[in-house]
Amino acid sequence: MNPRRPYHRKQAFDAGDVGFGITANQLSLGCDCLGHIHYFNGYRTDSKGNPVLLQNVICMHEQDNGLQLKHTNYRNNAATVARKRELVVQMICTVSNYEYVLAWIFDQAGNIEHEVRATGILSTMPIDNLDESNPVTVPWGTNVGPGVMAAYHQHLFSLRIDPAIDGHNNTLFYEESEALPVHKETNNFGMGYRATSTVMKKAGFADLNVMRNRIFKIRNDSQINAVSLKPVAYKIHAAPSQMLLMGPDSFARKRAAFAEHAMWVTKYQDDELYAAGEFTNQSRKDTGLSEWAARPDNVENTDIVVWHTFGLTHNPRPEDFPVMPAEQISVRLQPDGFFTKNPALDVPQSTQAFNQSTLHQEATTIASCCSSGKSHL
Ligand SMILES: [Cu+2]
């Protein structure tokens, strides 16, 4: 998003133009994942359509992510505690200067998280900032080194969700929370709030609304949860993000309509897999979501596809250079009345016999270096 020539031409579809398969790292033990690891191979096609084996492009491992649940009975101090153990399925793609680390993370409470990490090396341009008496800065970039400027830019991702919530006939809707009107009989103290639901009946798009806590959910109207008495559903913990900042007449905008709105819903069609259309290389207009979401399709209680646009408005920091600490962003799918109780209740309790934690020996160390032999603790 450097406004000067020739950078106005630099608008990459990292997945569509370059490809995350062809740039996938071949992973190895000890480098990218920790612990007990299984690797999956993959294939890409060469220019003649022949399969080319890519070894170890996907890794699967487990990781500990703190507590899954805990409660201490304050009357007798008895505690129930289970750790949050996650299954991580991960690939890493090197797209020229940048690395994208893409992971699906499954936990034992039914959550499915898609995490993106962006790391690697910033795209930089020369800047004449070497004369300390005449410092040069620009409003659309950050000086990250002597003579080196990194322009502001955005990374926008489209997460395609082809849901089957207890079957393929699903509905996308959003829930908003709002204060109940103060009313002598129903809300005399002004304390209450309620949730309203809006169904996406026709193919199209919608935006997020943090001030109304707008939460998108996918439900199956033919399957009623025995406890909540509402249709079974999964909610989408969207990643609230600024949409594309390029102007309406810019080619990037014409080529990437998906980057204008956070949530899209289309009726399922074979071969509609890529948000900006199948062939993005040197495309002049979007042949993806802008066309598919404009069809007057009913998307209520049918086979739908939900697309979530999220990303990073990345105004570089000097700390992002020369190699960038990973920026992390994630979208989580969470059961919402899909189960009848906490699905992690059968996770074994966390115990010292299993965890084998060890005690930090700080007191001993200090005592041993004290001439008096007394601990300062
Ligand atoms: Cu960036």
From TrEMBL:
<dbReference type="InterPro" id="IPR049948">
    <property type="entry name" value="Cu_Am_ox_TPQ-bd"/>
</dbReference>
<protein>
    <recommendedName>
        <fullName>Amine oxidase</fullName>
        <ecNumber>1.4.3.-</ecNumber>
    </recommendedName>
</protein>
<dbReference type="Pfam" id="PF01179">
    <property type="entry name" value="Cu_amine_oxid"/>
</dbReference>
<keyword id="KW-0560">Oxidoreductase</keyword>
<keyword id="KW-0186">Copper</keyword>
<comment type="similarity">
    <text>Belongs to the copper/topaquinone oxidase family.</text>
</comment>
<dbReference type="InterPro" id="IPR015798">
    <property type="entry name" value="Cu_amine_oxidase_C"/>
</dbReference>
<keyword id="KW-0801">TPQ</keyword>
<feature type="domain" description="Copper amine oxidase catalytic">
    <location>
        <begin position="2"/>
        <end position="345"/>
    </location>
</feature>
<keyword id="KW-0479">Metal-binding</keyword>
<dbReference type="GO" id="GO:0008131">
    <property type="term" value="F:primary methylamine oxidase activity"/>
</dbReference>
<dbReference type="InterPro" id="IPR000269">
    <property type="entry name" value="Cu_amine_oxidase"/>
</dbReference>
<dbReference type="InterPro" id="IPR036460">
    <property type="entry name" value="Cu_amine_oxidase_C_sf"/>
</dbReference>
